[in-house]
Design goal:
Length: 186
């Protein structure tokens, strides 16, 4: 026997459009992708992401060639920031700007936070930039901090950007001369 009982015909688990039921509408389709309805999406808030970008160390050779001039991309929630390349990793392994920040819309609830992806590429001859290192940070919600509530005025943001810009310039000067420029290693 085939194992199918003729007395119990196979029935679908649901009926489409029968009994006057309305079918659910398909989500909107734009730019070759479906748009998730707002009522399903997690609630988001504009957040500032701050990253300390000191430099890179102990990178192994890529395709038998030493990594000499890397740059990094930091991506979170669809926003990507590129950290300037290091001109010579052997002479000075630090990035010129050790602190970057950017604003991005992120979910308020920690369980919905997207991962932070860090990609390091080497800048080689003829514009060739191979991917030489990757890191993913999945759980960073415990590092979220609220500074004086939400910054409500554009003036505060401008003051902060100016202060950070001045500090970045000072740090650039310090790094260019080395942290301990006048001290011998002997």
């Amino acid at each position: 026997s085939s194992g199918i009982n003729a007395e119990w015909p196979l029935r679908p688990g649901f009926k489409l459009g029968s009994d006057g039921m309305e079918l659910p509408l398909l989500p909107r389709y734009e730019d070759e992708k479906y748009i998730v309805p707002e009522e399903i999406r997690p609630e988001k808030q504009l957040m500032r992401v701050e990253v300390l970008t000191w430099g890179v160390r102990q990178l192994k050779d890529y395709k038998m060639i030493a990594i000499d001039s890397p740059h990094a991309d930091i991506e979170i929630g669809g926003e990507t920031v590129t950290i300037e390349k290091i001109p010579s990793l052997k002479k000075h392994p630090n990035f010129a700007i050790p602190y970057v920040f950017f604003d991005v819309w992120l979910p308020i609830k920690e369980e919905y936070l997207p991962p932070i992806n860090i990609r390091v590429m080497d800048n080689r001859a003829y514009g060739y930039t191979p991917l030489v290192a990757v890191a993913t940070i999945k759980e960073y919600g415990k590092y979220r901090t609220v500074y004086n509530g939400v910054m409500e005025q554009a003036e505060e943001e401008e003051e902060l950007e100016e202060a950070v810009g001045e500090e970045a310039e000072i740090l650039k000067e310090i790094m260019a001369g080395g942290l301990f420029g006048g001290i011998d290693d002997d």
